[in-house]
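Dear Dr. V.,

Thank you for agreeing to look over these. As mentioned in my earlier message, I'm a first-year student in the group and I'm still getting used to reading structure tokens, so any feedback on how I've presented them would be very welcome. I ran two proteins. I've put each sequence directly above its structure. The first is here:
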Amino acid sequence: MEIVRTEKLTNERWVNLFVRVFRQDGQEGRWSFASRGDGTPPPAGHFDAVVIVPILLGKGRAKPRLVMLREYRAPVGDYIYAFPAGLSEKGESIETTARRELKEETGLDLVEVKHVSPAIYSSAGMIDEAAVMVFVTARAADGYKASPEGAE
């Protein structure tokens, strides 16, 4: 398959629509997709976001617990359950992104990164966003009380 050209269709802040024209077996085709970048194929090792799978360490005899969020998502028009996740800032490492997003979304402190997946594409037919899954242990600070944002 050969990419002939990519055309940008929108000019939004967080994600834009593109059409990629390609040639395969002498036939030309078009593929519409969304991208957080400029529409060019990302380099190997690139990631846009982290999906954090946090295990909250129990205090005393409390058992460790899996942490998930309940948050409103406009595209589905309802609340969903999801792992904490977020976009990487320019130049930020996977661990730094995971630590920041976990704190922002849950108020929990990242204790240890247990495993990082290779980049995954959850909807590669629709968007070129690459995410890594970061499996971590987390701990609540003394006096911790969750204070999620309005949609969480």
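The second protein is here, in the same arrangement:
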Amino acid sequence: MPKLTIENLTGGDFVIQDPTGLYGFTMDVDPGDTEAAVLSLEAFAEIEPLLVGAATAGKITWTVEDDPDVQADSIRPLNDLYGNDLGAPDLADADYFLNIVNMQATAYTLDETELAADNPPRNVTLTHAIVDTEDTLGDAVLTGTDFDDEVITETVALVASSEVTSTKAFKTLTSVVTAGWVQAGASPDTITVGFGTLLGLAQKLSATREVFLATVDGVAVKPSAIAVNATVVSKNTVDLSGATYDSAKLVNVAIRRTAIT
């Protein structure tokens, strides 16, 4: 049977119990105290998400140990949990960095280069519109910084009359250059640059299952998309926009793994 140990970091009682009521497990930890209890694997499976949520919110720390006398116990130690406080993201904004302008073959003068406060890194969106005759569009070369303030670049292929997005999450966007663009009609086509629904994470992950728990406004949310990359931090993103970002809902993502680089 697994042994659960909880340290209560709050000034009030911390009570956790099996939400199904099927296993009869309840644990009450006084303010500032540390308590341990033995419970069934089934009860632990029910309360584990609650424990993770409380730990992510800074209310408790906790560990679980296997009983070496019970061969069926195989619960991993949970010293591999890492929290991402992603602030209160804004709704996606298609013209945040650059309102609609004529396309050109040099760097654009951006309206903004930094995201508003309380936003994590976001993916960049580029929207093309035909004016009279479709131009030769080429690519857009993006330059900015990542979660660690390191310079990053990405080349995005433009698509006629469509919005395309970067795969990397940019903390800042300092340059957008259209490469290979050639005007075809009497007037150039137009381009708009903003940010999308992907939120950048602070860790380099190896598998999507390492995104253990995501909450928006304190409610657990299943990401509609998760992207991971073990070598490039800006390619690690989640999309939680199903819960509707509104600049007020706080977003937290818990990562569960054994090593962070």
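From my reading of the second output: The first strand starts at residue 3 and ends at 8. Residues 82-261 form one domain. Does that match how you would interpret it?

Kind regards,
E.
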